[in-house]
Design brief:
The complex is a heterodimer of chains A (267) and B (476).
Chain A lengths: L9 H11 L5 E5 L5 E6 L1 E4 L4 H8 L9 E2 L2 E11 L10 E5 L4 E5 L2 E13 L2 H11 L6 E9 L4 E16 L11 E13 L3 E3 L8 E6 L9 E10 L12 E8 L6 E2 L4 E2 L1
Parallel strand pairs in A: 3-5
Antiparallel strand pairs in A: 1-2, 5-8, 6-7, 7-12, 8-11, 9-10, 10-11, 13-14, 14-15, 16-17
Chain B lengths: L11 H18 L1 E6 L2 E6 L4 E7 L3 E7 L10 E4 L2 E4 L2 E7 H7 L1 H8 L24 E4 L4 E9 L12 E8 L1 E2 L3 E2 L4 H4 L8 E6 L7 E7 L5 E12 L6 E4 L9 E9 L2 E11 L11 E5 L4 E10 L3 E8 L11 E3 L9 E7 L2 E9 L10 E3 L14 E4 L5 E9 L10 E6 L10 E4 L5 E8 L10 H11 L12
Parallel strand pairs in B: 3-12
Antiparallel strand pairs in B: 1-4, 1-8, 2-3, 4-7, 5-6, 7-10, 8-9, 9-10, 13-28, 13-30, 14-21, 15-20, 16-17, 16-19, 17-18, 19-20, 22-25, 23-24, 26-27, 26-29, 27-28, 29-30
The chains are: A mainly beta (267), B mainly beta (476).
Amino acid sequence: MLGTYFYHEIIRKTIIGFGTLFNDVYIRHSKDNGNVLDETKVGISYGPMQKFLTKIQEQAELNKSIAITLPRMSFEMVSIQYDPTRKAGITQTFKASDGNNLKKVYMPVPYNIGFELNIFSKLNDDALQIVEQILPFFQPSFNLTIDLVSSIGEKRDVPIILDSIDFQDDYEGDFNTRRALIYTLRFTAKTYLFGPISETTDGLIRKVQADVYSGTNTQTAKREMRYTVTPDPINADPAAGDDFGFSESWEFFTDSKSYSPTQQEDI
Amino acid sequence: MALNPFFLQGSSNEQFLIQDLINEQLKIYGIEVYYLPRKIFKTDDIIREIQSSKFDDLFLIEAYLNNYDGYAPGSDLMTKFGLKLQNEISLTISRERYEEFIAPFLEGISSGIREGRITEYDFADLITRPKEGDLIYFPLGERLFEIKRVESEKPFYQLGKNYVFELNCELYEYENELIDTAIEEVDNTVEDEGYITTLRLVGAAITATASAAGISTSSPSIGSIVLTEDGYGYTSTPTVTISSPTSGATATAVAITTSVGNVQSVKEIRLTNAGSGYTSNPPPTVTISGGGGSGAAATAIVVSGGILSFSVTNAGRGYYGTAPTVTIAGPSVGQTATAKAVISDGELDSIQIINAGYGYTAIPTVTISSPVTGIGTFVYNEEIVGQSSGVTARIRNFKRRTDISTLYPPIDVQVALNTGNFSVGETIVGGTSSATYVIESYNRESYDNPYDVNEEIQTEADGILDFTESNPFGEY
């Protein structure tokens, strides 16, 4: 079909990157005299989950004694949309190294990933504490530097833009219905999707070879001497004290052959 | 005249009879539940909510379970916040029993006789009926329910009076409220719930031992290094180099830096080996280099009969926080040596010489102060206090980790309702048990809460995110 198998986990990495922005939020409760009563780290999870896993994890004992612990946050990816404003030529490529080989990488395709962060609390004050700790960092975006394609160390700045803030406070109604206090923050992560990464056909010059002929007519003349230059050593490393020199060699021939660049051997 | 005057529409004796019959029926057909009144720590009168409360009283009362056929189907919901249970029960309790056996005690609470009373937001008048927001411990299933609504007019004025309260309850949404009723069955309902962190405590501690490796009786050594200029602008610890003697061993030393007002300078220089073969004239030179700063300078003092170095003979265990003190026996004539211990991972790592002393003719004895040995067993829900940080927390679990070490098992304590961060090395003391232990490490991650994946997210993110300029949302 379109090509070979590849999976850079870019969307998953963007989800992780988004989640890590909110995984260290605390709230405090205090007494009337101002003394701190307790400090709570607000738990966060990716919202969508296998139902059976939720049951066996969160209700391992079937007689769970409480309804839920609060406050909690959850986040989830809600949309994936192509972003034409960041479009680059699709045939453009750039070179990158995976440490050993030079790779050819096509320009990534810009995509906007929509996220929702939900904050569920029992108290209005808790929700306000959480929201107030988040909002000042988004004006309206916050840049995350994510290693989107780790095999080539391709780090990209992914702006996370705060699009909207809604909250639902169902305090009205009969007293048999519990008040639900949920804040919903919507974000857009401007990420990039990379296609397959291939070995590049061009690369570093690791060897230079020049053949010297006995005449100028290359149809009839045969090479008689070969001059070869290679870096010394080929895996030169400054840390190992290499001087980045090169090795030269000369070879002389009387076999009336000539070198075929196509077959890369004497014929 | 609207009513027939020849009949009594509910005499007080008839009303008493009905109330007695109801009381008896409830005692026969009811179940025992605990009523937990809410005590309030703080209210916000602007956004109108009670922001912190606790439940530490409870009253046993009989109640008839109206939904005898069980909870409504579909009470467990999958939400974007994980599992949420919505089990509801409806209980009927006797009005007279409530008024005579619970209300008088609540009056004591509300009028401020008991600790934890309601402050500004006073519900002192509201003791004649069960209150919304109070809890019911339901023993069938060991669940905590919150009263959502109290119905007092059902059945509707039979013989001119109401005899029961109907309590409509739903499972409690827990948010780190203190539930400390002293009834284990009730308190344990939230044993594993909420934000719980883990303290690792030093179980058995062992005193370290060390000895002086030698004294400079035959060849002068360096006695101490006096810092003459402390320099500035260091970003890491600079290297200290002492010139070599003509013949003998070269002394070695390390710099100790300090930071005041974000400017790091050299605080002192400690010898790790005093060397030998040095002369006072010319004295050895001391060079302080590297570390990103400049300006620090020091001179060396040469002595005879000083201690050359120390060797650790037993690293001990249980040294966290402040390093132990090192006591060195003095010479008959001369100056007593002084030294500082360096600890690492709870053990004595090395001893650095502040002043090697002089006049020693024989190797002196060296004594290392003992670490605090933990003692006692914490009890559930007791308050612990960090002696340095002043942080308090409530004990949830206490376990000797024999699975880690059978000989010297560390102790893991799960705590909740902590008021801040405990410091490694500080001593914690239990308010009830008086158990005392030293903190080896403190993990602020939520313990064993299947919903919270904060730590897992961070672990994954550490491999793919580049927070070169630091994470403004806080570092782990």
